[in-house]
Amino acid sequence: MRPLFHPSIDDVTVEGILHALSDPVRASIYARLAGLSCAAACTAFQQAGDRVIPKSSLSQHFRVLREAGLVRSERSGVEMHNTTRCEEIEQRFPGLIPAILNAHRMQAGAGVGRRKLVAAKKAKSR
After folding, report:
1. What is the pLDDT of residue 101?
2. Would you tell me the crossing angle of helices 55-67 and 24-34 to the nearest 10 degrees?
3. How many CB atoms lie within 10 A of CB 71?
4. Are residues 66 and 4 in contact, defined by beta-carbon separation less than 8 angstroms?
5. Where are the beta strands (DSSP E) in 9-70?
6. pLDDT of residue 3
7. Strand partners of residue 48
């Protein structure tokens, strides 16, 4: 098997981080992973809201996160165990990751509110 590519923290860029997190699925995966205190297998992230992410797509999402320097992945048998590199990134770009994660939480909370409002309007119109 080929070794996994993990960029040096000196090679991690703000543009690369923002690009990797510009996809809503990857942003959600990263936010969930950042909230964990231990490594998690890729398959733990197959459920994204109300849909299931195929393993092949999930592998690609983790590859993008890894190559942007956001996660560290290690093979363990047939699974990949992933952890964030939040501490390293915090040293390089202080405040960046907490700001992104906070904005993600705010946006996700607003999305829940919008969905409830739409559902209430639909129920009222019936």
Report:
1. 93
2. 70
3. 25
4. yes
5. 40-41, 47-48, 51-52
6. 83
7. 51
- The residue type of 22 is S
Q: Which amino acid type is present at position 51?
A: R
Q: pLDDT value at position 125? A: 67
Give every residue of the chain whose pLDDT is below 50, as ranges: none
- Other beta carbons within 10 angstroms of residue 116's beta carbon come to 10
Query: What span, in angstroms and rounded, lies between the C-alpha atoms of 102 and 106?
Result: 6
Side-chain half-sphere CA neighbours of 34 within 13 A: 23
Short-list 80, 31, 37, 36, CA closest to 59: 80
**Residues 90, 50 contacting (CB under 8 angstroms):** no
Q: What one-letter code names the amino acid at 100?
A: I
Instruction: Say what the pLDDT of residue 112 is.
Output: 57
In this prediction the pTM is: 0.81
Span 57-79, pLDDT tens digits: 999 999 999 999 999 999 988 88
Distance of CA 45 to the CA centre of its chain: 9
Asked whether 61 and 25 are in contact (CB, 8 A), the reply is yes
* Location of structure tokens 């981080």: 17
